[in-house]
Design goal:
heterodimer, A: alpha/beta, Aconitase, domain 3, 5-stranded parallel sheet, 16 helices, globular, B: 174 residues, alpha/beta, Aconitase, domain 4, 7-stranded mixed sheet, 7 helices, binds iron/sulfur cluster
C-alpha cells in the first residue's frame, strides 16, 4: 500500500510514538507572530526555561498590529523583539521589513517540500502549497515547539480533490476554494489534510496554490497540500539553486514526496470548474457560499483587499486591472493592504499602487490589517465589508459588522459599484 | 489535575468559533486573567446573555458539533480556564481547539449526537455534571433525574491531563 504526501512526511520526521496513534514529529520551521507568541515566551521565562531549540529554525514576524496601535500591542511587539534578540533569532521581521506571516515566510524561501511547519496561527495550512506538512497550533504547542522542536499530532487522514476543467474569465483560486468549502462544510475536513490535484492546480501559480491551501482550515482541515512540481521549483529556485545541478533535478527530487498512486484516501472529490461563477459568502460561516449572481446588488460600506489569502502581487494585479481608469463608489471606503514590502514595491514598480490610489483606495502598510478587526479597518455595527480575506465570522471585522468573502476581482468591481458585483460583465480581466 | 465538574452551561448550536468565544480585539492581552470578563462575548445564540448568572456560575459546557472552529487562539480555552470551566462536552471539536484544551490539562469530551441529545434533555433548569476521570465516565444530574455516560479518551490525552498539560509532559520526555 502506497503512502500519501503527509504520511511520507510523518514517517520521515517521526521522533516518538508515546502512545498508539500519537506521533511526535521533529519540526523544521517554527513560525511566530506577536499575537500568540508573547504568552509562550513569558511562560518559558516563568518556568526558568528561556531557551530555544534552534534559533535558525525559528522565524519571527510582527504582522497583526503594526505599527503598534496602543500600549498593549506595543508591549506584545516588545516582548517578541526582545526575545528574538536575546535568543539570537536572525530571521526576525519588524516594521519596515514586515508583512503578513503566510506571505512573507514563503517569499523568503523558508518553506520547502517535505518540511514540517508549525505556527500559532490557524492559516499555517497555507504553506502546504509547497508540499509541506504545515499546521496551525495553539500557544502551548508553539511553546513546546520553540523549546524542543517537536509537536504531537494524530496522523491525519487525507481528502483528495481533483480540480479540472477550464477556469472562466473572472474566476480565480479564491472562487474555487470557496466552492470547495461549501461542498465540504466547515467541519468536513476536520483531522484531515486536503490534497489539491488536477489540471487547474497544475496550471496555478504558487500564489494561487497558497490561496487554495490557505482556506483548508475553513473546512476544518489540518493542512492544504499541493504536489511540489516545476512551478514550486521555479518559485524556490533562488533559494535552492546551490543544492541542485538544475531545475529538473530539483523537480525529480521533490517527486519523492508525491502521494503514491496506490495510497489510501479518506475521501475523493472532483470539481469541474468549467462555467463556474465567481463565489461569495452570505452568512457568518465560510461554507455559506453562493454564486455572485445571487449576491449581486448587496450594498457594502467598505472593500478590503489584502491578507494571507489574497494580498499577493497576483491579487493586486487582478484587482488593478478592473480598477484601472475607474473610480470607486463615493459610498464605499476602499482599503488595500499589500501583504509584504516586496509585494508593495513590486506593485509600485508596476504602477498598480497608483491605479488603486487614483481609484480612491487607501493603501496601508503591509499588515493583517482589517482582516481580524483588531487594528485598522474596523467596521461599525450594521456595516458591511466586501473582503478578500478568509473569515466572515460574527464580529470578525468589528462587532455587529458583516463580512462577505470574495476574490480580488469581485472585490474590485464591488468597490466600483458600491454593491456586490459580477466581474464577468467587465470583460476579460476588466478590459472593457 | 484540575477540577472537572459543576454547573452546566448549554450552548445549543454547532460551529461555535473561537472569535465568538473570545473576540480578536482582546488578543492584545498578555495575561490569561485579563480575558476573564469577555468570555463568549460575541456568541450568536438566541437569548444568550454573556453576563447572566447561569453563564458566570458554569463549570462545564455542553454543546453540539465542531466546537471551537476557526482561529488557533489558545485564548479560547484560557478564557474558560480563568472562569473555572475545565470541561467542554460536544459531539465534535475543531482539531486545534481540542488539542489546546488537552495541552492545558483541560477536558474536551466527545460524545455521540444521541448522547449529546440526552444531555440537552436536562437543559432548562439547574443541571450539573460530574466527571469520573479514572473510569472515563460522566454523570449529569438535574431535577429531571440523573444519567451516567461513558466517554472515550485516548491514552495520550489522558496523560496530558494527568501531567497538567503538554509543556510538562514534553519537557519531562524530550
Ligand atoms: S491576514 Fe488575517 S487570517 Fe491571515 S494571518 Fe493575518 S489575521 Fe490571520
Amino acid at each position: 500500500m502506497g503512502m500519501t504526501l503527509s504520511e511520507k512526511i510523518f514517517r520521515s520526521h517521526l521522533k516518538d510514538e508515546p502512545f498508539p496513534g500519537t506521533k511526535v514529529l521533529d519540526i523544521d520551521v517554527v513560525m511566530c507572530h506577536e499575537i500568540t507568541t508573547p504568552i509562550a515566551v513569558n511562560d518559558l521565562v516563568s518556568r526558568g526555561k528561556d531557551r530555544v531549540f534552534n534559533p535558525e529554525k525559528i522565524k519571527v514576524v510582527i504582522d497583526h498590529v503594526t505599527p503598534a496601535k496602543d500600549t498593549k500591542t506595543a508591549l506584545q511587539g516588545k516582548i517578541l523583539r526582545d526575545w528574538a534578540r536575546r535568543q539570537g533569532i536572525k530571521d526576525f521581521f519588524d516594521i519596515g521589513r514586515n508583512g503578513v506571516c503566510h506571505a512573507i515566510f514563503p517569499e523568503k524561501g523558508f518553506i520547502r517540500p517535505g518540511y514540517t511547519v508549525i505556527m500559532g496561527d490557524s492559516h499555517t495550512c497555507t504553506h502546504g502549497a509547497f508540499g509541506a506538512f504545515a499546521a496551525g497550533v495553539g500557544t502551548t504547542d508553539l511553546e513546546v515547539g520553540i523549546l524542543k522542536g517537536v509537536c504531537a499530532f494524530r496522523e491525519p487522514r487525507t481528502i483528495r480533490i481533483d480540480i479540472n476543467g477550464a477556469l472562466p474569465d473572472g474566476v480565480y483560486a479564491k472562487d474555487v476554494i470557496l466552492r470547495i468549502i461549501k461542498e465540504l462544510t466547515v467541519k468536513g475536513a476536520t483531522d484531515c489534510v486536503i490534497e489539491f490535484h488536477g489540471d487547474v492546480v497544475k496550471n496555478m501559480s504558487m500564489e494561487s496554490r497558497m490561496t487554495l491551501c490557505n482556506m483548508a482550515i475553513e473546512a476544518g482541515g489540518t493542512s492544504g497540500v499541493c504536489m511540489p512540481d516545476e512551478v514550486t521549483v521555479d518559485y524556490l529556485w533562488p533559494f535552492i539553486s546551490a543544492e541542485y545541478k538544475d531545475k529538473a533535478a530539483a523537480v525529480e527530487d521533490f517527486r519523492k514526496w508525491w502521494s503514491d498512486d496506490d495510497c489510501r484516501y479518506e475521501r475523493r472529490l472532483s470539481l469541474d470548474v468549467t462555467g463556474m461563477e465567481p463565489q461569495v459568502t452570505y452568512g457568518f460561516k465560510p461554507d455559506e457560499v453562493k454564486g455572485v449572481t445571487e449576491m449581486a446588488g448587496t450594498p457594502v460600506d467598505q472593500v478590503y483587499i489584502g491578507s494571507c489569502t489574497n494580498g499577493r502581487i497576483e491579487d493586486l494585479r487582478v484587482a488593478a486591472a478592473y480598477l484601472k481608469g475607474r473610480t470607486i463608489s463615493p459610498l464605499v471606503r476602499g482599503v488595500l493592504s499589500p501583504a509584504t514590502p516586496k509585494i508593495f514595491r513590486q506593485a509600485d514598480d508596476e504602477g498598480l499602487i497608483r491605479i488603486f490610489m487614483d481609484a480612491g483606495f487607501c493603501v496601508t502598510n503591509p499588515t493583517c490589517g482589517a482582516c481580524l478587526g483588531m487594528s485598522n479597518g474596523v467596521i461599525a455595527p450594521g456595516e458591511v465589508c466586501a473582503s478578500t480575506t478568509n473569515r466572515n465570522f460574527n464580529g470578525r471585522m468589528g462587532k455587529g459588522g458583516m463580512v462577505h468573502l470574495m476574490s480580488p476581482a469581485v472585490a474590485a468591481v464591488t468597490a466600483i459599484e458600491g454593491k456586490i458585483a459580477d466581474p464577468r460583465k467587465y470583460g476579460k480581466g476588466g478590459a472593457v | 489535575m484540575k477540577d472537572f465538574g459543576g454547573k452546566v452551561l448549554f450552548l445549543d448550536r454547532s460551529d461555535i468559533n473561537t472569535d465568538e468565544i473570545i473576540p480578536a480585539k482582546y488578543l492584545t492581552e498578555i495575561s490569561k486573567e485579563a480575558l476573564k470578563q469577555h468570555m463568549l462575548e460575541d456568541l450568536k445564540l438566541e437569548g444568550f446573555e454573556p453576563d447572566a448568572p447561569a453563564v458566570r456560575d458554569a463549570r462545564v459546557i455542553v454543546t453540539r458539533s465542531n466546537f471551537g472552529c476557526g482561529s488557533s487562539r489558545e485564548h479560547a480555552p484560557w478564557v474558560f480556564e480563568v472562569n473555572d470551566i475545565n470541561v467542554v462536552i460536544a459531539s465534535s471539536f475543531a482539531r486545534i481547539f481540542r488539542q489546546n484544551m488537552f495541552n492545558c490539562g483541560m477536558l474536551a469530551i466527545e460524545l455521540s449526537e444521541a448522547d449529546i441529545d440526552s444531555l440537552f434533555g436536562h437543559a432548562g433548569g439547574d443541571a450539573s455534571v460530574s466527571v469520573d476521570f479514572k473510569k472515563n465516565s460522566l454523570t449529569i444530574s438535574s431535577e429531571k433525574g440523573s444519567r451516567t455516560l461513558a466517554y472515550r479518551i485516548s491514552e495520550f490525552d489522558k496523560a496530558l491531563v494527568e501531567a497538567g498539560g503538554w509543556v510538562g509532559f514534553a519537557d519531562a520526555k524530550y
